[in-house]
Amino acid sequence: MTDPARSRAAVAGLVDHTLLKPEATPAEVAALIAEADALGVHAVCVSPSLLPVQAPPGLAIAAVCGFPSGAHQPAIKAAEAADAVARGAGEIDLVINLANALTSDFDAVRAEIAAVRAACPAPVLLKVIIESAALSDAQIVGCCRAAEAAGADFVKTSTGFHPAGGADLHAVRLMADTVGGRLGIKASGGIRSAEAALAMIDAGATRLGLSASEAVLAGLPQ
């Protein structure tokens, strides 16, 4: 018998259906939303310049912030996040300043996350992208702790744009162990099969960032 938690519908409910290529057009976003509705996913994730969008009830709208480099001043990130929320985003995926993480300046990591959190308070969901593939284990742990201290709702592995790579099982497990269920874990970057998606969930992911959502979900039982 199929485990209901591993069914197509259950996994779809964890998916942020994502379109973040720089040349994405409003017509492509409309197609993304239609596909998301048909697949039954949790959310779509788009660039803030493409907001507002028309979406069916029940489909969350996420926008990225400081994407993809994270090398923006905290005040700019805060303003970008607030603007995205004003134009319909209910979830913000924030890229940290990676230099702060690589130098283990976790006070700076926490401070910029807190600035964005203040600009988009709950019930907006704040997901913090740490680029785990570029970090040591100690740096991953430090970033997760900083995100929790700053009031984030999720920590997220990757933008999918960094040359170091995307999500991997070790990082997801480490992130999940660090936050202990107090924050969600979003695995994103390079997840292109049902097997990979299930492995990420087994490792502790509670949300999946997918651009190949239809192909991934097609590999799961009804």
From TrEMBL:
Q: Which domain of life is it from?
A: Bacteria
Entry EC number(s): 4.1.2.4
Q: Which GO terms describe its biological process?
A: 2-deoxyribose 1-phosphate catabolic process; carbohydrate catabolic process; deoxyribonucleotide catabolic process
**UniProt KW Electron transport keyword:** no
- UniProt cross-references to Pfam families, sorted A to Z: DeoC
* Localization per Swiss-Prot or TrEMBL: Cytoplasm
Check the record and name the SMART domains matching this protein.
DeoC
- The entry's active site is D93, K156, K186
Provide the catalytic activity annotation: 2-deoxy-D-ribose 5-phosphate = D-glyceraldehyde 3-phosphate + acetaldehyde
* Chief subcellular location: cytoplasm
The record's section on Gene3D superfamilies has: Aldolase class I
A molecular function annotated in GO for this UniProt entry is: deoxyribose-phosphate aldolase activity
One GO cellular component term: cytoplasm
The transmembrane segments are none
Q: Which residues form a coiled coil?
A: none
Pathway it works in: Carbohydrate degradation; 2-deoxy-D-ribose 1-phosphate degradation; D-glyceraldehyde 3-phosphate and acetaldehyde from 2-deoxy-alpha-D-ribose 1-phosphate: step 2/2
What keywords are annotated for this sequence in UniProt? Answer: Cytoplasm, Lyase, Schiff base
InterPro entries attached here?
Answer: Aldolase_TIM (IPR013785), DeoC (IPR011343), DeoC/FbaB/LacD_aldolase (IPR002915), DeoC_typeI (IPR028581)
Q: What class of enzyme is it?
A: lyase
Is Cytoplasm there in the keyword field? yes
User: What does this chain do?
Assistant: Catalyzes a reversible aldol reaction between acetaldehyde and D-glyceraldehyde 3-phosphate to generate 2-deoxy-D-ribose 5-phosphate.
The record's comment on protein family reads: Belongs to the DeoC/FbaB aldolase family. DeoC type 1 subfamily.
Protein's name according to its UniProt entry = Deoxyribose-phosphate aldolase
For this protein's source organism, the top of the classification is: Bacteria, Bacillati, Actinomycetota, Actinomycetes, Mycobacteriales
- Gene of origin? deoC
